[in-house]
């Protein structure tokens, strides 16, 4: 329901309207069937995605505060691109979850007919898909960027490296701080170790690595969102979400020390380790 309402532009139309709109106006505004739109809007109301008020026997629909802030494209904290990416890509991969659990691997071949030996060739299987994924990735930082970047005092590290090129093969520049946000969760332990060892070798003495990921509780009993992300990593990548001690083991075997982690209380958490 959420995906369809986003895809149809219902939240955008309501965000730009001077006030709540009747079904006919919404259906005409987004080019949809009246009767079908009425059902979608009513489901959105029950899901607390929309408000409804009745005047003169007619229902008028508007955005809830949450929809206004996160679901309309004109909002600076919009999450629309991520929702569209989830609707068009992630959701389809989840349809093969049972098979992913049987095989222990992602479902690009079954879902989209593309082999996933080279993971990001499958993820970026068309230019449109690459652009959609990039736009989607950016959005979360409008909500969660501040909490991960203020988790530690980063003023000690003047030269920061955002890894580009092919980080498994290309030369990595020397820097005081390397930020790996949502990178390690794409990869199995062996590939993570390979990358972390490369980062360690390039890192200046006294420098650090900042890993930004959604951390599982040490006993793996939660948070539910992170457990679901970990299943998402199964259907879409070669990786998983990890506990702090799992990250500690990976980082310390690459040479890093002084491991610290901070749970931010939001989706993504932060880990800092020093060379
Ligand atoms: C889940 S995204 C995270 C992107 C960004 N750090 C963020 O948090 O928004 C993983 C990123 O890793 C990049 N990537 C995958 N393989 C790579 C490689 N071999 N070298 C460099 N970047 C790579 C992808 O292009 C993608 O942008």
From TrEMBL:
One of its GO terms (molecular function) is acetylserotonin O-methyltransferase activity. Pathway: Aromatic compound metabolism; melatonin biosynthesis; melatonin from serotonin: step 1/2. Residues 1-72 form the O-methyltransferase dimerisation domain. Residues 164-257 form the O-methyltransferase C-terminal domain. One of its GO terms (biological process) is melatonin biosynthetic process. Keywords: Lipid metabolism, Melatonin biosynthesis, Methyltransferase, S-adenosyl-L-methionine, Transferase. InterPro entries: COMT-like, COMT_C, COMT_dimerisation, SAM-dependent_MTases_sf, WH-like_DNA-bd_sf, WH_DNA-bd_sf. Its EC number is 2.1.1.4. Gene3D superfamilies: Vaccinia Virus protein VP39, Winged helix-like DNA-binding domain superfamily/Winged helix DNA-binding domain. Homodimer. Catalyzes the transfer of a methyl group onto N-acetylserotonin, producing melatonin (N-acetyl-5-methoxytryptamine). PANTHER family: O-METHYLTRANSFERASE CICE, PUTATIVE (AFU_ORTHOLOGUE AFUA_4G14580)-RELATED. This is Acetylserotonin O-methyltransferase. It comes from Cebus imitator (Panamanian white-faced capuchin). The lineage of its organism: Eukaryota, Metazoa, Chordata, Craniata, Vertebrata.
